[in-house]
Design a protein that fits this description.
Strand order of the largest sheet: 2-1-3-4-5
Radius of gyration: 32 Å
Helix content: 40-55%
Order of helices and strands: EHEHEHEHEHHEHHEEHEEEHHE
Distance between the termini: 73 Å
Largest sheet: 5 strands, parallel
Shape: elongated
CATH class of the largest domain: Alpha Beta
Low-confidence stretches: none
CATH architecture of the largest domain: 2-Layer Sandwich
Oligomer: single chain
CATH topology of the largest domain: Alpha-Beta Plaits
Length: about 325
């Protein structure tokens, strides 16, 4: 038994063929049936609402069935939909059929056998279009679910380091630790300032190798309890706790700065030299504690100055973020 909810669009400029098609569809019990007398009108109807099955004459004025099929496939692609295209034709022979299938046609019915063949072909088309559209919807659901998981994930997909949300959370925990036990919270930002120039020169695979190597190098350069994260396409953050805010100085982190800048990164395209700027934002229990976001923003405001000086710029939290 046919599914009466199956949507069918019939495109035919000849009353005789339309009458035959309509009789078969009516006998089968399909209810959602629309008609168009030209291919252009059919496309307008499909833009308003997709159809599961399209039945069209191969030979039509202005736009034939093959050209109509190409436009339908474009609509399908844009709308994440599958339309089963069935052409009515008097053509015979392997070459004609091969041409139709190459243009994206799913089936054809010879007009001389339409009374006998159309209904079985419709039932087959219905099963296929239901399955195809179900698969498309399930795939879209998986894509959306994966996107949500990536958004909620605390980790960077490329390097495996924590992402910006993770860095913010760990910095907030460090600030709480400072308030309760003393010491200083320190946020370091390492910005690869020749990133855009490298991206123009190297393909994505090489850029990925470079970023992975920087991530590995930073993990090797920091202390075991320091947290290394990737907070932007060309930016890494290190969250650390120091016993005293005087330790949150350029001299304290010169080893990390030099470790990134002075030793080239090996990739499959050869050695790549990194030009990185470093900024430091620190806070101890003597000041009104900032939020983690505010302390990271303090580090961010000095990135431009660090790039200009090709060095390390350190700032101490004083209650508000001042522009560099």
């Amino acid at each position: 038994m046919p599914n009466t909810d199956t949507s069918i669009l019939v495109v035919d400029d000849t009353k005789f063929s339309s009458a035959m098609v309509n009789r078969v569809i009516a006998r089968a019990g399909y209810l959602d049936v629309r008609h168009a007398n030209t291919a252009a009108n059919a496309l307008k109807l499909l833009e308003e609402r997709p159809a599961h099955i399209l039945i069209a004459d191969w030979l039509m004025p202005e736009m034939d069935g093959l050209e109509l099929t190409q436009h339908v496939r474009q609509l399908d692609e844009a709308g994440n939909h599958f339309t089963y295209v069935m052409l009515l034709t008097a053509k015979e022979g392997v070459e004609a059929l091969a041409e139709a299938f190459e243009q994206g046609v799913d089936d054809f019915v010879n007009k001389s056998h339409m009374q006998d063949q159309l209904l079985p072909r419709l039932l087959s088309a219905e099963r296929i279009t239901v399955l195809q559209n179900r698969l498309l919807q399930e795939n879209q659901n998986l894509i959306e679910a994966n996107a949500k998981l990536k958004k909620l994930s605390p980790f960077d997909g490329l390097t495996g380091l924590g992402n910006r949300a993770y860095a913010t959370r760990r910095l907030a925990e460090t600030l709480k630790h400072v308030l309760s036990r003393g010491g200083a919270a320190c946020c370091l930002l390492i910005t690869v300032n020749n990133f855009e120039a490298m991206r123009k020169q190297y393909p994505p695979a090489i850029m990925s190798q470079m970023l992975l190597a920087v991530a590995r190098r930073l993990r090797q350069l920091v202390r075991p309890l320091d947290v290394v994260t990737r907070v932007g396409p060309n930016q890494f953050a290190i969250i650390t706790h120091q016993p005293d805010i005087s330790h949150c100085s350029p001299q304290s982190y010169r080893r990390i700065f030099d470790g990134v800048n002075l030793k080239a990164i090996k990739t499959s395209a050869g050695f790549i030299t990194i030009k990185a700027a470093m900024t430091i934002a620190a806070c101890d229990e003597k000041e009104i504690a900032p939020t983690a976001e505010a302390l990271m923003e303090l580090a961010q405001t000095n990135v431009g100055k660090a790039i200009e000086t090709a060095g390390i710029v350190a700032s101490r939290w004083s209650g508000e973020v001042q522009p560099a």
